[in-house]
Amino acid sequence: MTSTARVPDHLDADELQTVTLTVNGSERTVAVPTHRTLLDGLREEVGLPGTKSCCAEGECGACTVLLDGRAVNSCLVLCVEAEGHEVTTVEGLSADGLTDLQEEFLNAGAVQCGFCIPGQVVSAEYLLRTNPDPDEVQIREALSGNLCRCAGYQRIVRAVQATAARRSER
Amino acid sequence: MTTAPERAIDQRDALGEPSDPYPQGQVGRPVLRYGGGDRTSGAQRFVADLRFPGSLQVALVTVPVGCADVLGIDVTAARAVPGVVDVVTAADLPSPMPRFGVSHTDRPVLADGRVNYHGEPVAAVVAETLDAAQAAARAVHVDFRELPGVYTLDDALAPGAHRVQEPSLRPGHALADSNVLEEAHYAWGDVEAEEARTEVVVEETYTFPMVTHFPIEPGGTVAVPTDSGGLDVYSPVQHPYLLQRTLASVLGLPLNQVRVFAPDPGGGFGGKQNPKLEPLLAFLALRTRRTCRLVLSLEETFQSMRRAGCRIAARTGFTADGALTFHSVEADFLIGAYADVAPRVMGKGSYVAAGPYRIPGVRIDARAVMTNTTPSTAFRGFGSPQVSWALESQLDAGARRLGLDGLEIRRRNLVAKGEAFVRGESAATADGEWQQSLDKAAELIGWGTPLPPGRGRGIAVGIKPGATSGLSQSLVRLLADGSAIVYAGTSDMGQGARTLWQQIVADELGAPLEQVSVVSGDTGTVPFDLQTSASRSTVFMGSAVLEACKDVRRRVLDLYAESTGVPPEQLGERPGVLVTPDGELALPEAARVALGSLRGEFIGQGTRRLRGKGKHPLGGDAAFYEFNATAIEVEVDRETGELLLTRHVTVSDVGTELNPLQVVSQDEGAAIMGLGHSQMEQLLLDEHGRIRNLGALDYRIPTFKDVPVELVSAAVENHDGPGPYGSKGISEGALLCTAGALGAAVADAAGVVIRDLPLTPERVWTAIQAACPEEQDAQ
């Protein structure tokens, strides 16, 4: 019995593509192979490691970013697909210091190891922008694609609720 | 429910003046997480986020079976891939192959002719880019012959079974020619005599699945060769000093030539305690003289850590009024292909297989059984959840037979403080008022109040021994302006250790909280700490930090005396204060006066050492026990077998909550993790020993939608722990007995008793169908 993976016919399949996209308000041009995910592009080429990689198959939500304002798993988007689009990462949300949402994550004790938190914050921000007054069921539904193994789930729900309350007072 | 900070403050107030040494202080307050801002903004740097310009990328080569002889490895095509710097197989490493391990020195740096579990690397590719490394790894041609590996307890224990470990690795050991790596035996009283006065005997077998840690950060390692021939190694480990020692030993280097940087683990749960691939990365870096970087995929993480599965056959006796008479247990822990710390998990878990109960006759026989699977390692609970599942289920079975309820039978058997629950030579006594936790859980779940049809309640308790020996050292520097730096080697993997050190130092030295910083994760600058495990850090490192602060105060007093001419015997000190003949002086001010115009600083040292006992089967008495009572109310959908947890209560005996917000976070997190192995998680293998549900798509952990409708975390505080201010470790309690509570609740709700975890909808549905054929007919 043998285990032999196929030798790629033409390793130059990795021929670089030039991609121009807007990241956190700034236009960025990167040269990446076609198979490069937006997640890896953001982390390795753009230099923004705040977006995290865990499952790399769209299940854990650690890599969540906003693509033209919509929350997506950046591991399921190719860099080349983002050409001409606008991406907001966790760094972009907190460019002027912690947001009210991030403060409430801390206040609620929602942050433990912290690895899933950038993704949670982006997903929660997307929820609050699309539904400023979500009930608990809606929060759980909206964040159900974001795994937290420290299991701060109920603390995160409270953080989102507290943020919604703060924003409604403004 | 009040919010955690509110509850924390309520509880703090309820402590009352005498037991609260620092009513104005930071200890006991829900201080926000140290470093929390960076963790929400994305600025926190985990190992994969660190940048090493010019570093090489590593990809691993494996074979697609769990057990095989490697006949040959052809690296020609791989070496031809542009950008490849090196392809390393066992033949390129020292001979004999260096091995390492915590309890046995059995794990090779790279598979040496034999693959013992699926995912064990047989070669490593080092390349200029990750793309090249991965392409070349796929181009490595491995010629192998699959062997009849053993993947289950029955396989491994069958006569003539394939031997996972070469007998020569355990020369002279009585069990060397078997798959039983180690055994543990505990016994007291006379089980046979007790059985003679027994009214009801319950005899059942329980299983607990293999589950994986699934830290959201998969992890990785970067090894950097230094100019002096040593190594800097970056790895998000819980035990940096163990990694340092292991690498030094495998490489033949002095400790000072191996510097381990431990970036905060993005979740550990025990899985990131012990060295795994770091020795391989070290060899690659020394060979190439370049920085070598390996970032694991989640799948590779699944293949490098898991909890031991377990099968427990139990016989338990009760008198007519529900008193336990005897408990006899045979527990087989399904461990992996290398020992890691699994024998200790087996030994320490089975030590408490009779639980926190008053049982006159006990016999416990446990085995760690090797299989060709991912090496099992420490995992939150460390063997206790497995034995608790069997014992708590046995108690409920007895209660049902006797017409008692789950609360009553536990009240009748739970030991009181100071009473032995392990008897004999290595006795252990209750170190807390454990019945208070049980009563509180019962109260918070509304035990005994009416329930709608289809709902049921269960209650269970669990204990876990804390650390049995250990050493933590800390340094605290009080700087000239009154700010302070703490050096403490505890890895902060989410439990929030650094926050506690900040709180302790703020109170003890009178420094503002925000002017206390913590340095950790660097064996080159931070003093030795044995490990971050067993919920030990609050007790051990916390005490070391506290001692270091006292040392600082003594030094301030001495220098103040010298600088001012006030005789030292006229001076006194207490937390945050120097007492002088002219009155009290805030410690920072006293320090300023003492230091004078030369400025400088005070350096305090603190050590907490717990020596083990040579003859004790655990190596010593546990410094404390974690005790938890969990109560669950569940609704069972009889048509689908799905469980809806309407209320989940966890009450832990915590001694003193140094930071109530962090206690609640840890407690809730443990409870949800407990629901994972109770309700949904299990690693499934195919006939080749491969993990069938390898990855997040097929291996399910609890999500937002799996959290109980109401999750209530409460604590009992009697300030009776050995840690600072009467604290105990608290991070594991809430998952010890989750399974027992859930199983009892399901039995109460649906009338079916299930003895195999997890309680998946399929299992519950099948059990309901088997118990009530009329429901089947109706469909």
Would you give an account of this structure?
The complex is a heterodimer of chains A (170) and B (779). Helix content of chain A is 34%, strand content 18%. With 170 residues, chain A is an alpha+beta fold. Chain A has 2 domains: 15-93, Ubiquitin-like (UB roll) (Roll); 100-169, DNA polymerase, domain 1, CATH 1.10.150. Chain A has a 5-stranded mixed sheet with strand order 3-2-6-4-5, with helices on both faces. In chain A, a hairpin with a 2-residue loop joins strand 4 (64-67) and strand 5 (70-73). In chain A, helix 3 packs across helix 6. Chain A is globular, with a radius of gyration of 18 Å. Chain A starts with a strand and ends with a helix. Chain B folds into 3 domains: 48-147 and 219-295, Aldehyde oxidase/xanthine dehydrogenase, a/b hammerhead (Aldehyde Oxidoreductase, domain 3), CATH 3.90.1170.50; 309-467 and 616-778, Aldehyde Oxidoreductase, domain 4 (2-Layer Sandwich); 470-610, Aldehyde Oxidoreductase, domain 4, CATH 3.30.365. Chain B has a 7-stranded mixed sheet. A 5-stranded mixed sheet of chain B has the order 9-17-16-15-10. Chain B starts with a helix and ends with a helix. The model of chain B is unreliable at 1-21 (pLDDT under 50).
How would you summarize the topology of this molecule?
The complex is a heterodimer of chains A (170) and B (779).
Chain A: E1 2-4, E2 16-23, E3 26-33, H1 38-45, E4 64-67, E5 70-73, E6 86-88, H2 90-93, H3 100-107, H4 117-130, H5 136-142, H6 153-169
Parallel strand pairs in A: 2-6
Antiparallel strand pairs in A: 2-3, 4-5, 4-6
Helix pairs in contact in A: 3-6
Chain B: H1 4-15, H2 36-41, E1 56-61, E2 68-74, H3 76-80, E3 84-89, E4 99-100, E5 107-108, E6 114-115, E7 123-127, H4 130-139, E8 141-146, H5 153-157, E9 180-188, H6 191-196, E10 200-208, E11 220-225, E12 231-234, H7 240-251, E13 258-261, H8 278-288, E14 292-295, H9 298-302, E15 309-318, E16 324-334, H10 342-351, E17 361-369, H11 384-402, H12 406-413, E18 420-422, E19 428-429, H13 434-445, E20 455-465, E21 470-479, E22 484-488, H14 497-509, E23 516-519, H15 537-564, E24 572-574, E25 577-580, E26 583-586, H16 587-595, E27 601-610, E28 625-636, E29 643-653, H17 660-680, E30 711-716, H18 738-750, H19 761-771, H20 773-778
Parallel strand pairs in B: 1-14, 12-13, 16-17, 22-23, 29-30
Antiparallel strand pairs in B: 1-7, 2-6, 2-8, 3-7, 4-5, 9-17, 10-15, 11-12, 11-14, 15-16, 18-19, 20-28, 21-22, 21-27, 24-25, 25-26, 28-29
